[in-house]
Amino acid sequence: MRSCRRAVRPLFGAGGVFRFLAIAVLALLIAGPMTAPAVQARTYADIIVDAVTGEVLRSRSPDAQIYPASLTKMMTLYLLFEALQNGQITIDSTLTASSLAASQPATNLALHKGSTLTVEQAIYALVIRSANDVAMVVAEELGGNEADFARLMTERARQLGMNNTVFRNPHGLPNKAQVSTAQDMATLARALMFDFPGFYHYFSATSFSYNGVTYKSHNRLMQRYAGADGLKTGYIRASGFNLAFSAVRDGRRLIGVVIGGQSAASRDDQMATLMDEAFNRAGPVLMAAAPPPPPKPGSDIVGFALASAGYTLPTVPLPEGNPTDLTIADLAAGTVPAAAIPAGAQGQGDFGSTAVTAAPLAALPIPEAAEPLSGVWGVQVGAFSKFAAAHNAALYASQRAAAQLQNARVQIEEIKNELGTIYRARLIGLDEQTAHTACTQLRAFDQPCIVLKSGAIVAMNPVN
User: Fold this and answer.
1) Are 301 and 447 in contact (CB under 8 A)?
2) Under a CB-based contact definition with an 8 Å cutoff, are residues 416 and 446 in contact?
3) Least confident of 286-295, 322-331, 341-350, 431-440
4) What Rg, from alpha-carbon coordinates, does the chain have?
5) In which element (H, E) is residue 257 found?
6) In angstroms, what CA-CA distances link 335 with 11, 233, 388?
């Protein structure tokens, strides 16, 4: 007993209490991860969809709640592209880092307070470097502060149909309230392609330089998978290794999302396997002339897909002179005056030499034409290789969002470049809120659309 007391006394005698507390603190530090608040276990999820039709080709736990990590930056880019498209900023606009932005942890560009970069450099930094400090710079530029920008992100997510997504920050750093699903991330990837085809090429970039430093893309699968051209990687410990991915094969474009990979390499291998299986099952796109596919249940819209094989048409300047300018009444009557048809479009589709006959539609009421609104906003509903297709796309849109588009004017622009001639269908003369509401309504019927401001330059792949 005496020897035991001697052994214990040094611990609690003079200085013993201090030594005991030091040992206890050390033990707590060592056991820290075991005693930290529980983190939601990683969830594995995946989904592969046809980019044009939205058809789900395979999925596993697509609606399971996950942490999106840096896939979050796709929404940050969506809002940045939207600001570019609407003329709020330009590609050469200068962005300046605040102290908050400069304090964001890696991965980053090591910005300091007052550091500047252009909008285009910011795009590259988000896509390639996945720079958290740059994401915050964008958030403060477009939203004023992080919280308000996150609200904008979540609002836009709802408008796109991402009903299980909540954003709390622009970069994807850990936040328990910031959640999404594989399905929602696929929806976002598809929206980036459909809504901003003129900017999609940024997701194909493999490197960029800033302040004398060259950064390589984290998306290594893109560099080894045939037909791949983006999108975005992501990782935080709570989510695992994530990837949103797109590739084209035999005229068909697929989008894949994998969440919760154990490593970057295993995640990439899993994505490659899933994409291969989906491409083999889906088969090539048949390009020969054929009747349109049957509409989805609950809708008699076939869908005016932007492209079945990639979104590679470059952005082009608006043409000189006045575009073809029609009223909703012209469409409702089922004919378009011959004078309104561009010379090169005569004889296309079902058109005669004097008038254009609209494709038959289900009998839906079309409001009488009214005076155009004085607004400078509009919606673009497609870019087509035939005037008839552009005309019919505008007709479908005018019926499916009749309440919002009853006062709009139809603009069909003929654009020629080295790739040929395309015809862009727009409904213009709206205020901003009406344009957004109309676009939401059209998307509910699976008709792609883009909200734009007068003078915006937007290119879409042509569709026959």
Assistant:
1) yes
2) no
3) 286-295
4) 27
5) strand 252-261
6) 98, 49, 11
Between CA 16 and CA 162 the distance in angstroms is 59
User: Above 90 in pLDDT, residue 347?
Assistant: no
Which residue blocks in 207-284 are alpha helix, DSSP H?
Answer: 264-282
Class of domain 45-282: alpha beta
Q: What are the C-alpha distances in Å from 254 to residues 142, 188, 250, 271, 285?
A: 31, 14, 11, 12, 12
Flag whether pLDDT at 395 surpasses 50. yes
pTM equals: 0.60
From-to residues of CATH 3.40.710.10 in the chain: 45-282
Q: Which residues of 396-405 are buried (b: 16+ CB within 10 A; e: fewer)?
A: bbbbbbbebb
Which pLDDT does position 137 carry in this prediction? Answer: 97
CA distance 251 to 282: 11
Distance CA 423, CA 414 (A): 5
Cα 107 from Cα 105, distance rounded (Å) = 6
Q: How far is CA 351 from CA 323, 334, 391, 392, in A?
A: 19, 11, 11, 12
pLDDT tier at 452, thresholds 50, 70, 90: confident
Give 414's contacts (C-beta < 8 A, 6+ positions apart).
Answer: 319, 323, 324, 342, 344, 345, 387, 421, 422, 423
CA distance 140 to 128: 20
Coil vs helix vs strand at 69? helix
Residue 156: helix, strand or coil by DSSP? helix
Residue 261, strand partner residues = 241
Q: What is the location of CATH 3.30.70.1070 in the chain?
A: 324-453
Give DSSP secondary structure letters for 377-412.
Answer: EEEEEEEESSHHHHHHHHHHHHHHTHHHHTT-EEEE
How many residues can be counted in the chain? 464
State the greatest distance between any 2 C-alpha atoms of the chain, in Å, as a whole number: 116
pLDDT of residue 12: 40
CA distance 374 to 368: 18
Contact 74, 102 (CB under 8 A): no
The token duo for 116 is 């500047």
Answer whether 382's CB lies under 8 Å from 306's CB.
yes
pLDDT per position as a tens digit, 107-121: 899 999 999 999 999
The pair of structure tokens assigned to 279 is 């491409």
Q: Indicate the SS3 state at residue 433.
A: helix
Cis peptide leading into residue 118 (ω within 30°): no
Two structure tokens written together for 217? 């893309």
What is the CATH number that goes with domain 324-453? 3.30.70.1070
